[in-house]
């Protein structure tokens, strides 16, 4: 009997295997949900290229915490919640800590040598280590004085030329980084370096917009002849970037030879006895990375805060009242006051939540095929943490789009939103190494401005609330009135600026 059954069983088995295996395999290969696809371009053309955070956050309603785009050889996974970000970027950090490859900016212009773009590997590890020692929570105390001095000088500029506040804030953030990284004189740093650095940053931010170069989609194009316009642009960009990272380094080396180099991160690293391969190369790129990553993010946040204060005079008054009560009225705040000013800190947190400076963080790339919640995430997928969605998800009891610092001051446990300090600076192995420095900079610049000035919407028109749509998002130039709170505060500002040596 049994041997009659065997061929039948075999046939069934074969049929079963031929149908089931591809079926199961297909199930295993299932991509996370996303907008409808077509056979030619998948759904990649539906990925919003500029300022996509609001659109991507809306897609969360339709598709959930994971939204997947694919087509034309590119795959993008958007993470729309703290849970998915923690599960992948943190718990599976060994395969989710790489960066996508930018053919033009990264390879042809050489920016791939800089820490934010370096692949997850040995060179990146060396550069991170170089900056960690000097940017840790206790090391950053050595920069308090520079930060307080620069906040004081900024206040003086706001007093003398309030209309130019936008530029003053921008330059202050840039000077701060140049002073700390290279020991450049805070006042003269502008002429020598900032103009070039700003031009270069502008060039980089234009060049990193997806779609800026066809070559980013078709990497083989990098081998095309050098006279082609995109190759020329790439060469010019490479030169600008090279100058940005090399000139200040050479300046420090020269000053060290003359024994006149002030203390700075670069000077300390060059002077250290520690030996490792390509030492100068790594110092050049890790230090250069700090300017690129640390200037724009800081001024974006300060400008957003100024805008929010102009729009919310009642919140400004509360912050000022707290400063007057805690710090007093006879001096400007210092970084030492930071832990004693909960309302001012809540204003800063709310600024970072209301409009995060990096609304989509900095993209990652996954180095191995992965399965998550039953979905297939292929190797090489670009992974984007949508922190804009996180900012709206964890916002406590108040409406997410409104500016309400009080949401961070609630005492009942379930209503307190997640502190932006845990998500605005990125995650796990690639978390922002400048976080502690940045938090002190934001505090001292914002607290100094609030202590000394009133900020209000222009009397003749409404303030235009608009933000740039690039990687770093900050207010488009806007007008607001910035006036000293009193003549006593104005005199304090003048005196404080005169103390900067
Ligand atoms: C408000 C200010 C700042 C914000 C919101 C911010 C945010 C971020 C974020 C979201 C990332 C990506 C992390 C990830 O991939 O998970 C990052 C990376 C980075 N940040 Fe910041 N940052 C700020 C200020 C600074 C400052 C002042 C410095 C330098 C002193 C700095 C240096 C860097 C560097 C070098 C990286 C690349 C790290 C890597 O790829 O391993 N940042 N930052």
UniProtKB/TrEMBL annotation:
Superkingdom to which the source organism belongs: Eukaryota
Which cofactor names does the annotation list? heme
The subcellular localization recorded is: Membrane
Cross-referenced InterPro entries: Cyt_P450, Cyt_P450_E_grp-I, Cyt_P450_sf, Cytochrome_P450_fung
Look up and give the membrane topology term: Single-pass membrane protein
Residues holding heme: 432
Question: A Gene Ontology CC term for this entry?
Answer: membrane
A Pfam family it matches = p450
TM stretches of this protein: 6-25
- GO molecular function per UniProt: heme binding; iron ion binding; monooxygenase activity; oxidoreductase activity, acting on paired donors, with incorporation or reduction of molecular oxygen
Q: Could you confirm whether the keyword Zinc-finger appears in this record?
A: no
What is this protein's name?
A: Cytochrome P450
What organism is this sequence from? Polyporus arcularius HHB13444
